[in-house]
Write a structure and sequence with these properties.
248 residues; mainly alpha; Multidrug-efflux Transporter Regulator, Chain: A, Domain 2; 2% strand; activator; MerR family transcriptional regulator; transcription regulation
Length: 248
């Protein structure tokens, strides 16, 4: 399907699809020689996920992180979205009932307690957002942070020194091939260091690298050691991780 057909089908603007392409959220599987975007069935499935997650209150950055997670599963995502929509429908039904009772109360037809006037008004809680974040987002990062919190001051200082040394070494190699012996050896050291206080599979390691470029908090922090370090480190982690999986 071309971009106009997809926009009409999903009831969104062509500009929105352009934006999704620009930020790497929904990249069409085919672009003609004339530069026209062509969307596959897989693209349409991805778009459905995007629109469902948007409806549930997820930001585009969060959606991109979920969809790009190595653990992302379409079937699980659909079930998560269904449970979340049912919960949202239940909340909306409560809110509608509260409005109806309030209208009757204003007319003098009934009495309402203060608590009843706020029944169903829960704006700041989405339990399924946390479930999605844990399933496809930064669970490994949170686990690592918890383990770091249990370390002694001396242990934290030692790890921080190793951390900075590796970042500095990576920064010095920006622009060199990620498949070079030096970079792969450095990436191996990084993997081993992370696993001293975390539990990273090769997929989780690759996923962490993706977060370095998808989450501006990571990017800003890492690029302090060198412009473009987050991108280079992400690519190095992806290459090394995939190679380890292949040779496992």
């Amino acid at each position: 399907m071309n971009i106009k057909q997809v926009a009409d089908l999903a009831k969104i603007s062509v500009r929105t699809l352009h934006h999704y392409d620009e930020i790497g959220l929904l990249i069409p599987d085919h672009v003609t020689e004339s530069g026209y975007r062509q969307y596959s069935e897989n693209n349409l499935q991805t778009l459905q996920h995007i629109l469902f997650f948007k409806e549930l209150g997820f930001s585009l950055k969060e959606i991109r992180r979920i969809l790009h997670s190595p653990d992302f599963d379409t079937f699980e995502a659909l079930h998560l979205q269904r449970r979340s929509l049912l919960a949202k429908r239940e909340q909306l039904d409560k809110m509608i009932a509260t409005i109806d009772r309030t209208i009757a109360n204003v007319k003098g037809e009934n009495q309402m307690s203060i608590e009843e006037k706020f029944d169903g008004l829960q704006w700041d809680h989405n339990p399924y957002e946390q479930e999605a974040r844990e399933k496809w987002g930064d669970q490994a990062v949170d686990d690592s942070n918890q383990r770091i919190g249990k370390l002694s001051k001396e242990q934290k200082t030692e790890i921080e020194q190793q951390w900075q040394e590796i970042y500095t070494s990576f920064a010095a190699r920006i622009g060199t091939p990620v498949d070079s012996e030096e970079t792969m050896a450095l990436t191996k050291r990084w993997y081993e260091l992370l696993n001293q206080f975390g539990s990273y599979s090769y997929d989780a390691f690759i996923g962490l690298g993706q977060m370095y470029v998808l989450d501006e908090r990571f990017t800003k922090n890492i690029d302090r050691y060198g412009e473009g370090l987050a991108q280079y480190l992400s690519e190095a982690m992806a290459y090394w991780g995939e190679l380890q999986k292949k040779n496992a």
